[in-house]
Amino acid sequence: MEPSKLDLCSHGEIYIRVKDHIITKDGLGEEWGIIESALALLRTVYKDYECDPENGEGLILHGCGAMLMMGCPISIHWSVKHLNDQVILSNFIKIKSTSLETGIKRFPVDKIVLSNQLYNEQIVSFALKAKSFFNQSKKQISDEYDQEMYLKFWEEYDSLLNNLLQ
Question: How far apart (Å, rounded) are the C-alpha atoms in residues 134 and 139?
Fold first, then answer.
């Protein structure tokens, strides 16, 4: 899939498997906001994230909210808890439609425990690939508001990523 010059986001498929459960993969016809999801995941390296689809954005976003990362409930969520030198992932949920009543799929995974180092490496790898994918096309910014949001987005993204690369 090729990024659009007019769309300030990047959309594509993502492969996520948790133990024996495939949450999303190529060929399902699902399109995710790649760069927005990468930023959401970068944020979890520095702070916990509570899986709460009714009140918060997900970690893997549909992308229809543009770079503001808000709007569409179609998303994938899981909790991220930092404990000493470990990261605990739990509560895996996928919202497959705009209906929180009928579109929720819960995955029967108790929890996953990773070292901080392994978790950070996985997030950095995804964030670097997402940025490369995004940079495949030059973006055309139509107004000042979009320009300001674009700059703020990349300022945060690059700051979080660069801190992990040092």
Answer: 9
Yes or no: say if 96 and 103 are a contact pair by the CB < 8 Å rule: yes
* Token pair recorded at residue 94: 């996928």
pTM: 0.86
Domain ranges of the chain: 11-134
In the three-class reduction of DSSP (H, G, I as helix; E, B as strand; rest coil), residue 112 is classed as: strand
- Give the C-alpha separation, 64 to 62, whole Å: 6
Task: Report pLDDT digits (tens) over 72-114.
Answer: 788 999 999 999 999 999 999 998 877 667 788 899 988 999 9
The β-bridge relationship of strands 75-83 and 60-61 is: antiparallel
Specify the amino acid at residue 25. K
Other residues' Cβ atoms within 10 Å of the Cβ of residue 145: 10
CA distance 107 to 147: 38
The secondary element (H helix, E strand) that includes residue 79 is strand 75-83
Residue 144, φ and ψ in degrees, nearest 5: -65, -40
